[in-house]
């Protein structure tokens, strides 16, 4: 059993299709983690999808959907200072009224790389504020279909020092564990100080 303890934790869940990855995740989420309910952001990668940061696209969609159910006051308390850069990185967040209200004209004179860095920093700040209030769990299914840019963004998001307190669960098929996105994600994990848990599921038994 893996419990949140104020530390960032990465879990790699590796199993063939149909071996019970989703069931294991559901059973874990049904287990009480602390006195407060966890904030769960879950997404899935699709092989034929072609969007920027496709590995995180579903997670940000989940985040946007959940924040739209909060009041402007509640959302405002967790939004990062640089809302504009964050919304440029993930435009779906502009569907949140509080984001649209605070979004300012994009800064001029910044190259795309600098705008990206500012957007990632804003996402780190947002996740950190979420994690300060509730246990934060980010789940990405079928990560074998993710792109290297998504893996690099995840590495930056969770990098030390002062990374957000969260549990990242990455599920993928074992026959695809040498794909570029997984290799990029693992290259950072190998040199980081984060706790890493690897779970491999074998054939299901009655």
Summarize it.
This protein is of the alpha/beta class and 206 residues long.
Rounded to the nearest angstrom, the radius of gyration is 17 Å
Give the low-confidence spans: 191-195
Instruction: State the total count of DSSP E strands.
Output: 5
**Overall SS class:** alpha/beta
The helicity comes to 40-55%
What's the multimeric state?
Answer: single chain
**Number of H- or I-type helical stretches:** 8
Overall shape: it is: globular
Order of helices and strands: EHEHHHHHEHEHE
Adjacency order of strands in the biggest sheet: 2-3-4-1-5
Provide the β-strand percentage band. Answer: 5-15%
Largest sheet: 5 strands, parallel
What is the residue-mean pLDDT, rounded to a whole number? 82
Distance between the termini: 21 Å
